[in-house]
Amino acid sequence: MKKMLRKLGLAFVILTLFYFMAGWKMPVVWRMETLKLPKGCKTVYHTKIRITDVYWLHIEGEKVIKCDMGYEAAKAYIEENNSAKQLEHINISWYGGMSSDPIYDAEYDDSFWQQEDREDYVKISYFKKLEASHREYKHREIMSKSVILRSCKRNEEIGGERL
After folding, report:
1. Rounded Cα distance, 4 and 116, in Å
2. Which of 87, 118, 90, 124 lies closest to 104 in space, CA to CA?
3. Which residues contact 54 (CB under 8 A, 6 or more apart)?
4. Which of 106, 113, 118, 132 has its CA 20 to 30 A from that of 98?
5. Rounded CA gap, 50 and 14, in Å?
6. Is the pLDDT of residue 16 over 70?
7. Could you give the 3-state DSSP secondary structure of residue 54?
8. Do the Cβ atoms of 38 and 76 come closer than 8 Å?
9. Distance, CA of 159 to CA of 30 (rounded, Å)
10. Residue 66 has what pLDDT?
């Protein structure tokens, strides 16, 4: 009986570690990979997902596909053939367009710019802002006040006026 409990405990620990290390990606990957795409579309860059705190805590993911029908027609097809729930947090854009913090950036993709059919590349992006708890907001508020106070003290030490 003890061996069985030990194995169950170990399995629980392993599954918990897996979830916290990579399991949170699965729902996002599932959502992006199960979109109904036009026939003949090929995946150029596979789905990548990350959590980042640039500007605020959020999950973002991207996938780049190439559709012979062109960006506009592919976007229209995807929006028509997928439900609003499936398209929640998903943005469809031209791969060569501008983005503030891309995973796949066409600007540095030399092979993309050498292609003659650049208008056929479509970027499917996922973006979901994560809500911070009240405790985290309080911590940020305290930290920002601390930084302001230290800055004022340094200013006084070098002979500046009190703010």
Report:
1. 62
2. 124
3. 101
4. 132
5. 21
6. yes
7. coil
8. no
9. 59
10. 93
Instruction: Please report which helix (H) or strand (E) contains residue 51, including its range.
Output: strand 42-52
Q: How many CB atoms lie within 10 A of CB 109?
A: 17
pLDDT value for 151: 60
Which run of H or E residues covers position 134? helix 134-157
CB 156 within 8 A of CB 84: no
Token pair 């930290």 in the structure block, residue: 143
Token couple for 54: 């640039």
Find tokens 């590349």 and name the residue.
121
> Which token pair is 12?
């629980």
Angle among Cα 30, 31, 37 to the nearest 5 degrees reads 105
- pLDDT category of residue 56 using cuts at 50, 70 and 90: confident
Counting Cα atoms < 13 Å in the Cβ hemisphere of 25 gives 13
Longest dimension (CA), the chain: 73
The Cα 157–Cα 161 span in angstroms is 10
pLDDT (0 to 100) of residue 38:
93
Name the burial class of residue 132, with classes exposed (0-12), middle (13-18) and buried (19+) by CB atoms within 10 angstroms of its CB.
Answer: middle
Query: What is d(CA 10, CA 98) in angstroms, rounded to the nearest whole number?
Result: 47
Check: CB of residue 77 under 8 Å from CB of residue 38: yes
Report which of residues 111 and 63 the model is more confident about: 63
